[in-house]
Structure formats: C-alpha cells, structure tokens
Amino acid sequence: MGEEAVEFSLERAVVDTKGCKHSALDVGGKTYVIGTSDDGSKSSTVVKILDKLTQTWVVPTVLGTQPMLTNSQSAIPVNDEKILVIEKGVPLNESIWFLEIDTPFVKHQQKIKGMEVVSWSKGVIGVGQKPVVISGPSGVGKGTLIAKLMKDYPSKFGFSVSHTTRSPREKEIDGVHYHFTERSKIEKDISEGKFLEFAHVHGNVYGTSIEAVESVTDEGKRCILDIDVQGARSVRASSLEAIFIFVCPPSFEELEKRLRARGTETEEQIQKRLRNARAELDQSNAPGLFDHLLVNDDLETCYENLKKLLSLDNDKEDSDSIFTKEGKETASYYIVSKVDSEILLQSETDEAKNGATSSLALDLSSLSGGAPGRTRGLKIRSINSF
Ligand SMILES: Nc1ncnc2c1ncn2[C@@H]1O[C@H](COP(=O)(O)OP(=O)(O)OP(=O)(O)O)[C@@H](O)[C@H]1O
Ligand SMILES: Nc1nc2c(ncn2[C@@H]2O[C@H](COP(=O)(O)O)[C@@H](O)[C@H]2O)c(=O)[nH]1
C-alpha cells in the first residue's frame, strides 16, 4: 500500500496544487482528492485518500478505464459508495465519471488484493439494450445461430469478441472471431480487473473483457456473448444485466455428429469437449441460471425461436434516444447541488448561458452496471433555472 506525504491542503472543496485543480471530498472518515498530476511530459489522473482518524495518506490501486482529467472538474459524493465527477469543457456524454470507493466490486477487490482500491466507471446516458448470453455445449450450433443473427441484423447486434489462449482455426481472424492471446497476458489482464468473466474451457483460457461488451453497447448495438456455462454463471453474478439463453442439442448423438462433421478438433479434443458437454447439459436447468432453453434441431426453426425470444418481430425504437440528445452538447458544466437523486448542473459556456440548456438535472435514480464496466441509466433534462 502506497502511504506517502502529500502536499495538499484541504481547507476548501477545490485545492490548487502547483497550478493543477484537485477536488477534495469527505466521504465517511476519509477525504478523497481527485485531480491530475503533471510530470512535464504527460498528465494523468490521480486519486489520493486521507484517513482522517490516523492522518495518513494512501495512494490506492485504481481500477477501471480511467478518465483523462486534463481540464478541471467538479465532484460530489453520490452516496457512501461513489463520487460523481464531471470534467469541464468536453461534451456532457464524455464528461461524466463515477469514482467507486466502497461498492461491492471495490470491496471485493480490496479483499482479494489486501490493499486500498478504488475504481473508475464511465457514466453513460441511457441504458442500452440488455446483452444476450448464449451458452451451450461445444458443437451445438451457437456460433452458427449468432452468425445468422449478425448477418440479418448488422445494425442491431454486435459480437463480444472474447480472448482465448487456444490457437486460431483455419479462417479464424484475430480481433474478429477471438483475440488470440498468450496465457501470461490474459492472466495479467484478469488480475487487473479487466475481465467481466473468464474460464478454463477444454484446456484453454477463455474470457470476456469488459471492453468487449461495453464497446458494443456504446455503439448502440445489443451485445451477444458466446460463452460456456462457467462464464454464464460468472456473468450472472456480475453487475451486468443480461438475458441468458442455453442452446441444447436434440440428442447427445447428434451433438457428437456435428462436432465431428465440423472437423476442427482432434479426436482427443473431441472426447474432451463431449465429456464437458455432459456436465454443461446437466447444468442447463440449474435454478436461476438460464432464462430460456432453445433446442437446436432444425436450424431454421431454432433461429426463428431465437428471433422471437429477442423480440425481433417487434421493431420498437430504442427509447434511450430521448435522453441522449442533450449529451452531445460541448458546454462546460459544473455541479451545483444534489437534490434527492438528481444532480443539478450549471453551464459555464456563453452560448449555453443564453440558451435553454444552461441548467440541467442529471437523474441518478435508475443507474445500472458500474465498475468494472460503465455506469448506465443516467437521464438528463433541461431546466430553466434553479
Ligand atoms: N441445426 C443444425 N443442424 C445440423 N448441423 C448444425 C446445426 N446447427 C449447427 N450445425 C453445424 O454443427 C457444427 C457446429 O456448429 P457451431 O460451430 O456453430 O457450434 P458451437 O456451438 O458454436 O461450437 P463451439 O462452442 O465449439 O464454438 C457446424 O458444422 C454447424 O454447421
Ligand atoms: N467462459 C467463456 N467461454 C467462452 C468464451 N469464448 C468462447 N467460450 C466458449 O468456449 C467454448 C469453446 O469455444 P471454441 O471457439 O474453442 O470452440 C464454447 O463453449 C464457447 O462458448 C469466453 O469469453 N468466456
């Protein structure tokens, strides 16, 4: 744990050290100082914590995708678990960040790392559609069904590109089908909290990075994950709200036939996959794990059933669009106050001062997700005056 003397003075909410603006906030028995450090060549975001009882400073391990707080920022505690930080001078939908200081994710990381941990989570306006987890034994046809979906609805769905330590098959492209990676690299990234889930599957490591899922949702698409049952279980236990579908074969014999006909595995690998398939099929009915079971007997029938589950017969517009319009503005906002679950923001820029959006209310009542991924569900509305 990095304890050190720091030259901050904490008399005001914003402290100015060596020309850099820092926000200092009291939450519980601690003071959190958030700002930038400039070593001359590049600036980076820093977080330091003062334990007010012992008067010791700690530099915590910082997880999550970090903001580049190159401009000044304003901050306010949302509750005992997180601090809202708004960076000034960038479009609103790029400027909202949460510093998680005592959420379940942060507590868990503190326990496993045995040190002070905080985590950044980017705030996103709107919720996006729930990702879809598709699981089932190797050879059942998950990839075939997903490929059909992506071909028919390229603007609606995006694939979560997993990382794996297995070797590429003929025609598999790095970055498209998988990120093919070294075991030491994936293990390092997992230990740094960059993965939503990972599992040892058929003798290799497979994992879904947080970025793989979040980048698809950021594009306004619904994310599809093709992962094994262990992975599905981990995602269920995570903060990601998703729909879980298990694809079953019509029979074990048919599964074996498909796996052999695919011709991508050695006999030894096929035997291993079939052994694992029995265990996966046993878990398909585990209470609270899968929302839907789909039998992939006739491919076209199964595909039609999958489309029904995903309501593709019902072409509703994404209701998020009504919340995202305001987020594109490049006004520079600062936090005025917190009223119930709303944060009131005031613009500093001239053009917004004269316009209808000089004041905004940021509604935090329906947040979802959170570190190590994005915090979604923010809503904003214009208000004329406070
Ligand atoms: N309904 C079906 N009837 C007959 N063959 C099928 C059907 N669905 C898929 N297949 C074939 O079965 C083989 C396995 O399918 P696929 O590769 O999609 O399985 P998978 O579940 O994605 O496997 P893995 O988990 O190993 O990636 C492929 O050759 C595919 O063409
Ligand atoms: N837990 C995870 N499982 C994954 C992931 N990506 C793929 N998989 C599963 O692995 C097996 C084998 O895949 P293959 O491409 O080698 O045939 C299959 O069941 C996939 O669903 C992942 O990121 N996490």
UniProtKB/TrEMBL annotation:
It is an enzyme of class 2 (transferase). SUPFAM superfamilies: Galactose oxidase, central domain, P-loop containing nucleoside triphosphate hydrolases. Pfam families: Guanylate_kin. Its EC number is 2.7.4.8. It catalyses: GMP + ATP = GDP + ADP. GO terms for molecular function: ATP binding; GMP kinase activity. Keywords: ATP-binding, Kinase, Nucleotide-binding, Transferase. One of its GO terms (cellular component) is cytosol. The keyword ATP-binding applies. Residues 129-311 form the Guanylate kinase-like domain. InterPro entries: Gal_Oxase/kelch_b-propeller, GK/Ca_channel_bsu, Guanylate_kin-like_dom, Guanylate_kinase, Guanylate_kinase_CS, P-loop_NTPase. Belongs to the guanylate kinase family. This is Guanylate kinase 1. It comes from Paspalum notatum var. saurae.
